[in-house]
Fold:
Amino acid sequence: MLLIALGLLVLYFLTGGLQSPIQNATRDPIAFIAFVVAIILGITVHEFMHAYAAHRLGDDTGRLMGRMTLNPLAHFDLFGTVLLVVAGFGYGKPVPFNESRLRSSSSVALVALAGPAANFVIAALCAIPLRFGAADPFGGAYTEILAFVVYFNCVLGIFNLVPIPPLDGSNVVYGLLPPRQQYTWRQFQPYGPMLLLLLLFVGQRILFQIVFGPAQLIANFLVGTRLF
Structure:
């Protein structure tokens, strides 16, 4: 579920938490294009990998619903796409899966991990030209787009691993727990969105340190220098 992740991301930048990526995107057309490319790529591959992992582990719900595709239109909600264009953030439709069709309860964790893992793989691949100083034939645009893709995919990967429903990290924890504890964990799920909102309004510093600090470190490591 990327709506909350992207909403927090934009709010953080617009309120001055970090100084460049989205603030630059509001002023620089190339930065805006780079931001849109990064988010579309991140959401599309993230959701595709959820569907693909579920398919490989025995559940074809996502595939039968047309979600096992790299076509961004299959993963973007109409309102979420409009928000992406006019507000700078958006969200994708979560891929459903049927737990009873998966091979084991631990398969839930693997399906959940597939999305954030895909974001980290995207970041690592796009960091290669930046790390090794590949020539930019487009006067800086190519480099800027790659930098946005690396950074925002690290942010999406880290945030979605936070173990609070409806984020992927919650299903990772669920899939690794014994059956009795799984039932207890599920009882907590309806309160997850409220907890995230509470963290947004009361514990912003904690939440942002958990997400943006590690994301910046990972992005810097992949690229070999500080981004933005």
